[in-house]
Amino acid sequence: MDITIHASFLPQDDPDAALAFYRDTLGFEVRNDVGYEGMRWITVGPAEQPGTSIVLYPPAADPGVTDDERRTIAEMMAKGTYASLLLATKDLDGTFERLQASAEVVQEPTDQPYGVRDCAFRDPAGNLIRIQEKR
Predict the structure, then answer these.
(1) Is 68 exposed, middle or buried (0-12, 13-18, 19+ CB in 10 A)?
(2) Nearest to residue 11, comparing CAs of 101, 81, 66, 103?
(3) What is the pTM of this model?
């Protein structure tokens, strides 16, 4: 089989804040920015990986989600327990230094027992963003 990862979805509840974080803070390029009925889906990704994207989507857009589920999603996003993303870099300490002034730090760079060094931030929607460097 020839299967690749094309896109992953992360919820966002403030498209302008999400755009500023992923474009301006992380340096991803904007590939698409689509509005529909007052909502926005923003597709971003690293310039060096044109075939892999992250779609920042409004979680309330799914018509199959009940009002109770929407409230639960909003609560989980606020706590940072709804969604996460794992990124990689060759220079974790340098990346951490650049990002710490612009994002909520969850964990400073740490050597993990499973062979990576990583750190963690939250994006404006509360999503956990882990960044790791292989050892």
Answers:
(1) exposed
(2) 81
(3) 0.90
Total residue length of the chain? 135
73: alpha, beta or left? (left if phi > 0; alpha if psi -120 to 50): alpha
Question: Taken in order 80, 86, 87, 92, is the CA torsion positive or negative?
Answer: positive
Chain position carrying tokens 């050597």: 111
pLDDT tens per residue across span 73-92: 999 998 889 999 999 999 99
67-72: average pLDDT: 92
Nearest residue to 77 (alpha-carbon basis) of 14, 33, 32: 14
Closest CA to 54 of 30, 88, 79: 30
Q: Which two tokens stand for residue 135?
A: 């050892």
